[in-house]
Amino acid sequence: MLGLEIRLLKEQNKLDEAQKIIEIINNHLLTPTKIGTPEDTKTREANRRERFTYESVIRKENIERNSQDNDIKSANEWRFNALLGMIGNTETGLYPNLNERKNEIEQTITEYITELAKIK
Predict the structure, then answer these.
(1) Band (21; pLDDT cuts 50, 70, 90)
(2) How many Cα neighbours within 13 Å face the side chain of 48?
(3) Cα separation of 101 and 53, whole Å?
(4) Alpha carbon 56 to its chain's center
């Protein structure tokens, strides 16, 4: 939900407030555990962030499988969950692979919202 808040703040041109939230998230994710050093934590977190890809956040396979089975409700649940990840992770700018494909992610966000808007 913080990603959505960041997105809304950016749309309202409240960039300083959005940046503060991004910094809080980043600092939280980089807080060392009791068993690791700050360097270990940074390395582990960088590796984790690299695993977030366009393909992993759009949940296309799940949506297509449910759509082929005519399970529109489940397909829409996957769309909604994917939206949370796409918006939540992309708006922070903390995930390099997502940043590289931001335009595609924005198109997919629009596509999913359009599909979800059809629900009555």
Answers:
(1) very high
(2) 11
(3) 9
(4) 10
* All residues at 6 or more sequence positions from 31 whose CB lies less than 8 Å from its CB, including other chains: 41
* Confidence (pTM): 0.85
Residue type, 46: A
Q: In Å, what is the CA distance from 41 to each residue of 19, 48, 95?
A: 22, 10, 16
For residue 92, give every residue at least 6 positions away whose Cβ sits within 8 Å of its Cβ, in sequence order, or none.
2, 3, 6, 22, 25, 26
Instruction: Tell me what pLDDT residue 9 has.
Output: 97
3-state DSSP assignment of residue 90:
helix
Sign of the Cα torsion 77, 56, 65, 112 reads positive
Alpha-carbon distance of 46 to 48, in angstroms, equals 5
